[in-house]
Amino acid sequence: MKRVGLLAVALLSLGLLAGCGSTSKVGDGDQAGADAAGRDGKGIGRMGGSSANLNDPSRGGAGAGGYRFDVNVEPEHRIFFEYNSALVNDRAAQVLAHNAGWILAHGPKGVITVEGHCDERGTREFNLALGQQRADAVVRFLVSQGLPANRLKAVSYGKEKPLVPSHDESSWSKNRRAELVLR
Amino acid sequence: MFFIRCVQAVDRRLLSLLWLGLFLFLSAGSSSALAGGLRIDITKGGLTPLPIAIPSFVNLAGGGQASAGGTMGSQVADVVTADLERSGLFRPISKSAFLQMPDHLLKNGPQFRDWRVIGAEALVSGAVRQEGDQIIVDFFLYDVYQGNLIGKGKRFSAVARNWRHVAHRVADEIYTRLTGETGYFTSRISFVSHKGNLKQISIMDQDGANRSDLTQGKDLVLTPRFSPDGDSLFYITYENGAPRIARLNLLGGGSNILSDYPGLNSAPSWSPDGRRMAFTLSMDGNPEIYVRDLNGSHPTRLTDNPAIDTSPSWSPDGQKIVFNSDRAGTPQLYVMNAGGGEARRITFEGNYNAAPSWSPRGDLIAFVHGGGGRFRIAVINPDGKNMRVLTDSWMDESPTWSPNGRVILFSRHNGSRSQLYSIDLTGYNERLVPVGGDSEGSDPSWSPLIR
Prior knowledge:
heterodimer; A: 183 residues; alpha+beta; CATH 3.30.1330.60; 6 helices; 5 strands; B: 451 residues; mainly beta; Rossmann fold; Neuraminidase; 2 domains; 7-stranded mixed beta sheet; 5 helices; 31 strands; 39% strand
């Protein structure tokens, strides 16, 4: 499944909708969204300057190789984890940094919910805890990027809401994730 | 390998026992209720269920005469028969084989020869009558080979609409008289029923009858847990947009949120006295186990390390808590005092041991054992000895014990559906437990005895 999710347009449109009390996923952008995000140089540029913060994330995160910002990476609202792990890996750190930068730059108001999800293997309760660890790790990372903690909320769904319903590693790897949702 | 003791066992039975590699259990009737001599030794694994004859109960009119018509008598017998059969310890004989008619049996007592020739070793005789809105059930249990009563005749009564409950009482009584252990048929199961994306907290009798759905289905709900008195449930609800612990009063008091801390509120577990709850919170930065009084006190933290700690389950004496932690790198089971402190790891085999459930007898802990890409139900002694894997499927979870600590109920996901199953603690007698309609079922919790 192609990871869509172009935070820029989605957040802008959600910002407009927020007054109506609606709740939607950040992202789920269409092609027009992709174009808009691609032109969004400001947020990208600003985040490039903050890479130094990434060398000391609270739990995992950028490795010894350090974080290198890639201007070609699209903003996404999902990041992915290894099995039974809540470690924010390099790729996820890039995505999150990108998101944090964009949010700071464009300033949509409202609480950002970080949903932690797991693949279906293992027990319901352990996965609820693991999903919480994943969401908390993302929240800590976003705070390290300058987002105020009081705008972030970590919610675990354990293995209750898989992105892909099949039962193989390819699906599981997409289900072990965190998602950013603007409420 | 369980079997029967018969003081004057005939050669045929003795030979068949030896042939099966079994042994006679020769202690004299250790309980007055067992003075008749027939007894199933259920401490051994299950191979040969006891043949039992359960004729229709006779429908009596007000004056005690057998009444023509009426189906209650046969319905009661059917419920008793189904209970005993499902336990795996009994083999009910087909009614079509019976030689003595129920009316005659009730009036004149058993013609034991008629029951011996069809292979029955135990025989039930009973009657049903209705007085006002009450149903009254009398029954007698016989040892066919000895030709005498096992225990005394017994009478149960209840409001007529609860006739199934009365039938389960009879089944409990038969089970107890023939095994020496408390029955478990007068009990209920709470679970999560799913239909499409709709998930509800549901409840039903242990045999799948009388199901009712207790939540509306608009919010995600998980893991109902019966209170020790059977009157309420803990469960997880996302009605506030995050996992919160709620308590639902089954006697009509509605539902309210019990635990509403930031982050995770999950894995509620009743203390055996029903006064406290052990549960998981992440408010201090990491999933840890806490305990609190249900009268509203603040949570006390029991665990403290950077790993996941969750899924607490109390020992029946309330002194210990078994729980799940990945502090050693993989999810494993640990036992600590109910007040917290040092935890002792009890599982070492396999890279995923989780969801512990301490048996109400105290002798075993059931849990989910993962390995080789499969998750199966296993049991282990609380000291970490004698791990035994009971099931073999792809994704079995949520083990919960029958009130007598004999049977484990769990949920199984086969890749397309989630359903409830039960299995004897010996690993025999795995059964699908129907939840009604085309619903799926998961997250079972077995109630205490409902009397």
